[in-house]
């Protein structure tokens, strides 16, 4: 059985993951010693709320990389949605965002988090700009975008960086996420698909010292302390 499908409705055994309800939230739970606290998507509280209030607005690295500037608010396809944190930042800055997630369990967490945020006065307007799709962007990006109402001006990619056994032990949340999502060995195909579909630019998030994804070289790089954004530009974004 594929690890992306290895979910149960009973108490998880060591190394197994379970989708279950915890209070008003859907969570993904596993052995706490391996994975820590159950994983949930929450756009109204916690890290997302702090970043919404104090994150730095359009001066943030991701906003600059995606071309959000004074008078310019492009639409964005987040083709590796994950837990939706980057998409929420972009939507909080006014962008219409299509989130594409291929792992069924993570898509379910996103769907649950968006539904709860839609009932919160502080986040309802933001998540109204977030549109969720379940599918594999490496194979079906063009079809997923065509079926949505979001124009593919900017495509944002944040593929999982391959884990090296000799590296420091990753955080428990990331370990849980990697158990489901894998190492995104198909990132070069995803980049190729994004370059075919994006009308203006493709933005790829990478660890600061990591090599670019195999394929064409990025035209521009925006670098932060721990991560960077590789930019592949077709044409400039205009007001």
Automatic annotation (TrEMBL):
Keywords: Cytoplasm, Methyltransferase, rRNA processing, S-adenosyl-L-methionine, Transferase. GO terms for cellular component: cytoplasm. S-adenosyl-L-methionine binds at residues 85-86, 101-102, 158. Pfam families: SAM_MT. It catalyses: guanosine(1516) in 16S rRNA + S-adenosyl-L-methionine = N(2)-methylguanosine(1516) in 16S rRNA + S-adenosyl-L-homocysteine + H(+). Its EC number is 2.1.1.242. It is found in: Cytoplasm. Transmembrane segments: none annotated. One of its GO terms (molecular function) is rRNA (guanine-N2-)-methyltransferase activity. Gene3D superfamilies: Vaccinia Virus protein VP39. It comes from the Bacteria. InterPro entries: 16SrRNA_methylTrfase_J, SAM-dependent_MTases_sf. Belongs to the methyltransferase superfamily. RsmJ family. Specifically methylates the guanosine in position 1516 of 16S rRNA. This is Ribosomal RNA small subunit methyltransferase J.
């Amino acid at each position: 059985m594929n690890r992306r499908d290895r979910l149960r409705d009973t108490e998880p055994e060591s190394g197994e993951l379970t989708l279950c309800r915890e209070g008003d939230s859907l969570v993904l739970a596993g052995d706490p010693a391996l994975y820590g606290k159950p994983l949930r998507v929450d756009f109204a509280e916690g890290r997302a709320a702090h970043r919404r209030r104090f994150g730095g607005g359009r001066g943030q690295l991701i906003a600059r990389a995606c071309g959000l500037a004074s008078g310019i608010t492009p639409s964005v396809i987040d083709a590796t949605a994950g837990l939706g944190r980057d998409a929420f930042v972009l939507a909080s800055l006014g962008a219409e965002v299509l989130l594409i997630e291929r792992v069924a369990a993570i898509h379910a967490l996103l769907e649950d988090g968006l539904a709860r945020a839609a009932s919160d006065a502080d986040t309802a307007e933001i998540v109204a700009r977030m549109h969720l799709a379940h599918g594999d962007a490496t194979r079906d990006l063009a079809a997923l975008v065509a079926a949505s109402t979001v124009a593919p001006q900017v495509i944002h990619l944040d593929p999982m960086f391959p884990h090296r056994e000799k590296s420091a032990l990753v955080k428990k949340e990331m370990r849980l996420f990697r158990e489901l999502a894998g190492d995104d060995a198909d990132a070069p195909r995803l980049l190729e698909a994004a370059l075919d579909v994006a009308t203006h630019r493709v933005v790829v998030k990478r660890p600061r010292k990591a090599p670019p994804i195999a394929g064409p070289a990025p035209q521009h790089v925006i670098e932060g302390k721990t991560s960077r954004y590789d930019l592949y530009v077709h044409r400039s974004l205009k007001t």
